[in-house]
Design a protein that fits this description.
Length: 429
């Protein structure tokens, strides 16, 4: 199954682009589900279908043969599942004398709407493990995701790994020992210890978040950036590409939307020619900034494309490096995914993380025990180092050609004397 997420600055036409891709793919024989994680819920408007009223709530709506659409909404189920953990945290904060109203606010699940969208995506796409709707079920060939504007999308995509990191630290370190010594331990601590139900709930959440992250950073998922040829929009798209690289997501293409037709000699007025010149400057900047990615152009149509026929017409008007009659946005091909890598280099190791368009001044690194904290602008990722790097010290770091490379050398105090290269390779594996 192929998963493609469309995102971009608000107002650039990402919903229309995602819907056009889904319509054309379905009409060319691909079983397609298009879903929206955008709270604005404009996907149904683009398709000309009231997704909230049609069909069974929470289930995909058939738009036409081989094309279904889904509007992700209520997070009630997510809140109910979290309640068992929240009740325990409220007990702990109550023991500490925290005001109940403040405690309720502190223990509310952050990003409930985003989590609901992620779990729905996992359910429809299938998790890497044994899941009722795994990719082998053959329900869909292509999942097109109309994401929220870039800031919300980055928060959404970073959430699974970040939440899993926090949940991992909520898990009782010694469940069996805590169950055995619960009364004595609770009395000694002066506060309630988590019940088996709490531990089970947190463990389930942890696994689901890891599943989502593995799914979206896997070999079948990618992000498509949608933009217009305007300086402000392009600047945000550049930052988004860097941030997506930080979080380990593959960006496999750019769609430049709403390109004005050329006025031509003796055609159009000064206003149109001025826009042509400004957009050409923007198109040149796009070609320079995203030279490593396929770029597709979408024309500014005479009328707003509403409904499957109009969207299919838009898909047919796309032009660029990856367009074809049955796959105008090139979304069905393989994904080139670099991702985080660790390799041997001499007597040490090099950790590589793609950070497209980043400069050394944009990146900040910190080592914290078994973790490496990487910050780019306002975004930060906590990398859990593999066992082999935990026994190393950082010797240097550089950003070159859009890749962060951190050099590690074995720490003499942590590497046993006589540990040969073969054993080191086994430890790395």
């Amino acid at each position: 199954m192929r998963i493609v997420l469309f995102t971009g600055k608000g107002g650039v036409g990402k919903t229309t682009t995602a819907a056009a891709c889904a319509v054309r793919a379905a009409r060319c024989g691909t079983r397609t589900l298009v879903m929206s994680t955008d709270a604005a819920h404009s996907l149904g408007d683009a398709l000309g279908v009231d997704l909230a009223a049609a069909g069974t709530p929470g289930e995909p709506v058939e738009v036409e043969p081989r094309l279904h659409a889904l509007q992700v909404s209520a997070s009630t189920r997510v809140g109910t599942q979290w309640r068992v953990v929240q009740d325990y945290l409220l007990d702990v904060l109550g023991t500490l004398g925290i005001n109940p109203v403040v405690a309720e606010e502190l223990t509310s699940l952050p990003g409930a709407e985003e989590i609901a969208a992620l779990l729905e995506l996992r359910s429809r796409a299938g998790s890497p493990g044994n899941h009722p709707r795994d990719p082998g079920s053959g329900e869909w060939d292509l999942l097109v995701v109309d994401c929220a504007p870039t800031a919300e999308t980055l928060r959404l995509l970073a959430l699974p790994e970040a939440l899993a990191w926090h949940l991992e630290r909520l898990l009782p370190a010694q469940r069996g020992l805590m169950r055995t010594l619960r009364p004595a331990a609770a009395a000694a601590a002066g506060m309630p210890l988590p019940s088996a139900e709490v531990a089970t709930t947190v463990t389930g959440w942890y696994r689901r978040m890891r599943d989502v992250h593995a799914l979206l950073t896997g070999p079948s998922a990618s992000v498509r950036l949608v933009l217009t040829p305007e300086r402000v929009v392009i600047a945000e798209a550049r930052r988004t590409w860097t941030s997506l690289g930080l979080y380990g997501f593959a960006v496999d293409g750019v769609v430049v939307n709403r390109v004005f037709p050329a006025a031509g000699p003796g055609r159009g007025d000064g206003w149109q020619r001025s826009w042509n010149e400004a957009q050409q400057s923007g198109l040149d900047e796009v070609a320079d900034s995203f030279a490593e990615l396929p770029v597709v152009r979408a024309p500014y149509l005479a009328a707003e494309p509403i409904g499957p026929d109009a969207l299919d017409h838009l898909a047919g008007r796309l032009s660029g490096e990856v367009t074809s009659a049955d796959d105008p946005l090139g979304v069905l091909g393989p994904v080139r995914h670099e991702g985080l890598r660790v390799r041997r280099s001499g007597s040490g190791y090099v950790l590589s993380l793609p950070l497209p368009l980043a400069n050394a001044r944009d990146v900040d690194l910190k080592r914290r025990d078994a973790e490496l904290l990487v910050s780019v602008g306002d975004h930060r990722r906590v990398l859990s180092l593999p066992a082999v790097l935990q026994r190393c010290v950082v010797r240097g770091a550089r950003v070159q050609d859009g890749v962060l490379r951190v050099t590690f050398a074995p720490d003499p105090e942590l590497w046993p004397v006589g540990l040969d290269d073969g054993m080191r390779e086994a430890a790395h594996g």
